[in-house]
Amino acid sequence: MKNKFDLIIFDWDGTLIDSIDWIVHCLQTAGQQCGCAIPEAQAAKDVIGLSIRNACAKLFPVVDQETLTQLTACYQQTYLSRHLGRKDLFPGVYDMLVELKQAGYQLAVATGKTRAGLQEALQATDTEDLFCITRCSDETASKPDPLMLHQIIRYANAANDRSLMVGDSAHDLQMAMNAQISSIAVSCGAHPEDILQQYSPLLCLQQPAELLNIIRG
Length: 217
Known about the structure:
The protein has two domains: about 5-20 and about 90-215, HAD superfamily/HAD-like (Rossmann fold), CATH 3.40.50.1000; about 20-80, no CATH class. It has ten helices and six strands; from the N terminus they run E-H-H-H-H-H-E-H-E-H-E-H-E-H-E-H. It has helices spanning about 20-35, 40-45, 50-60, 65-80, 95-100, 115-125, 145-155, 170-180, 195, 210-215, and strands spanning about 5-10, 105-110, 135, 165, 180-185, 205. A six-stranded parallel sheet has the order 3-2-1-4-5-6, with helices on both faces. The longest helix has 15 residues, at about 65-80.
């Protein structure tokens, strides 16, 4: 895939950073604190990638709007209680991002996180300067709506056929399909390979740092 893409757009949680189990814990804790049924781990994983409000609405479908607001607030409070650092990135991810940027690729993030949550994560991992643009779910439409990808591609002045989405969830890959761009899946996050393959990624990698050899190739 050498020289095939100019812009590489990454999901954040479960794609670049090993945070899926922590997110599951936070969603389960929010349910418990708000008196809701505690979701099973896979049910929680299935909503990762959506905006937090959409995720809670899908995970707790019978709650009223006030409880939904409480759930999102409880989730965010618990999530931010743990300070993630560069050590939480998947192995080799930081060096991969540095090398890709130095090689001339434009790098971006498209995430279901809030801007506040992503900003803290970028600063904690010292990765903010590696990305030309980042888009969050509270700034635009939630995945799998392709709007955030359209905005990133437009900002980067890239072509659809020269843009690549890398993600770990069905929401990431469905968003790429909706935006009519190529995708590569990683199976280290929210969804296993058999689910990800249903969305026709170019490849399904076990770890994100494997992308470097693919792009070099």
